[in-house]
Amino acid sequence: MLYTIGLQYLPVTTYNLIGASQLGFNAVFSYFLNRQKFTPYIVNSLVLLTISSVLLVFQTDPGDSNKTTKNKYVIGFICTLAASAGYALMLSLTQLAFHKVIKKETLRAVIDMAIYQNMVATVIIVIGLFGSGQWRTLNREMEEYKSGKVSYVMNLIWTAISWEVFSVGCVGLIFKVSSLFSNVISILGLPVAPVLAVIFLHDELTGLKAVAMLLAMWGFVSYMYQHYLDDLETKEKKGSSIEGVSEVALVTERG
């Protein structure tokens, strides 16, 4: 809801710039709440992904011509910043809940966590919808939709399904890896989305979009390389512990 208010009152470029701060908030929360270890490769990844998102700010957009009053601009700025910080905090708290409260490594735990979060969000939105009286305008909104009622309903259905898939995937990444990695994947989509628009929607590919995508991919590879190094270190430790146990058993048998 806060993101929606920000998008309504802010130019798209400003909105994207503030939204990119989400990764920075998540890094801070992960450090204090989840004891996230920061290596040069992870820091490099965070910097590159943030820059790739910020680069999109310099992409001209016809929607940026909308003018808003100073008060609405301030409201939009505060709401977007609060939404970025709140979402980052939610990711870190989700990881903390998995480790400290749920303590189960099952698919059901992932789905339950996603359902609980969505239920709370749904209740809040429904209360706001009826409390503000906007539910009275839903029928008119459907009738005035340019592509027709069927397109309106299909848009709502597939948007809901897409967000559910995203939610389960996001929680699953937190469960299997970390909240920071889940956020990295989310931020990766910002510069990649314009390129997909070029392929499927025949949008214009500019040099800025291409550079943003390359930086995002570079940052993603840097993060994955750190995970590769962590896996190697874990396997070496397991191998060393197994060899140590074998040697102790052999000495015991000889003795």
Automatic annotation (TrEMBL):
Is Membrane set as a keyword in this record? yes
One cellular component term from this protein's GO annotations in UniProt? membrane
Transmembrane recorded as keyword = yes
Q: Which domain of life is it from?
A: Eukaryota
GO molecular function ontology, one term from the record: purine nucleobase transmembrane transporter activity
Kindly give the Pfam families that the UniProt entry links to this protein.
Answer: PUNUT
List residues traversing the bilayer: 12-34, 41-58, 73-98, 110-132, 152-175, 180-201, 207-225
To which protein family does this belong?
A: Belongs to the purine permeases (TC 2.A.7.14) family.
Would you tell me the protein name for this molecule? Purine permease 10
| Species per Swiss-Prot/TrEMBL record | Sesamum radiatum
